Amino acid sequence: LPTPPARLPYVPRVPPMALLGKVTATTFALERPRCVFDRHADASDAVWLAVAFANASATFRNPPSRAEVPPYKELVTARSYMTLETAAAAYSCSAPSPPVLRVGDDTACRDQGRQDPCNGPLPSPGPYRVKFLLMGCRGPKAETRWSEPILLRRAVSPSTIDPVPTRLGSDVVVIASILASLGAVLATAVLGALGYGVWGSVCHRDLGTDAFIRRSYRTHHIPALPHPLPPGCGCSPPGLCCSA
Predict the structure, then answer these.
(1) Which GO CC terms are listed, alphabetically (predicted)?
(2) Which helix (H) or strand (E) holds 186?
(3) Residue 88: helix, strand or coil by DSSP?
């Protein structure tokens, strides 16, 4: 009988840090496992990712060989598939590998009908559960635990978007009108008070100036100045003006 694969304590998970497109309607990101398979892997071994609907992960059976790996195109019917076949050395402690993997990122392989592993977009929000499986020439050698359920985002149908802004209720409209009216009355009262104060100050200064003028310049009678001479009129001899 084949030796059952070693059970590893590692649990796959979505990265906890902020990441653009970490979970979308058809994809999700995973932390790349490091130093997880080093004790069990040989140079010729490969690591796979098993993806299953959360309610089907308990019935998933590891394939005995690469030829029997469940393909992506059977996900809807078989409720699981395997993808992201990668050399085990890429997950070693010393490998300079990217920190995350993206599940469902290959939009091209969905329509090609290929039999090789496909990392195509996920067909529904799920939820899904995943695990890593180390496979050698004689079958599975080690496996991680299943992840917690991963729920994708739900795409919003354009037909459900209301193009007309939501109308406020009548009570809200009445309250808003009353508040606006009170604000206008308050602003008018403030401006009126300020205007009255400024006008009073101006009148006070004007009265003071008028009183000063009357006290200073109305104490003596100032005779009226003579009218200017009409054009062409002169005096000859001096002191006598010619008659018209």
Answers:
(1) membrane
(2) helix 170-217
(3) helix
* Average confidence score pLDDT of the chain: 77
Cα atoms in the Cβ-side hemisphere of radius 13 Å centred on 208 = 6
Q: How far apart are the first and last CA of the chain?
A: 152
pLDDT in tens, 43-90: 899 999 999 999 999 999 999 999 999 999 889 999 999 999 999 999
Rounded distance between C-alpha atoms, residue 13 and residue 129, angstroms: 9
In sign, the C-alpha dihedral spanning 179, 181, 187, 193 is negative
Q: Hey, how many other C-beta atoms are within 10 angstroms of the C-beta on 90? A: 14
HSE, side-chain direction, 13 A CA sphere, residue 177 = 7
pTM score of the predicted model: 0.64
Q: How far apart are CA 144 and CA 131, in angstroms?
A: 6
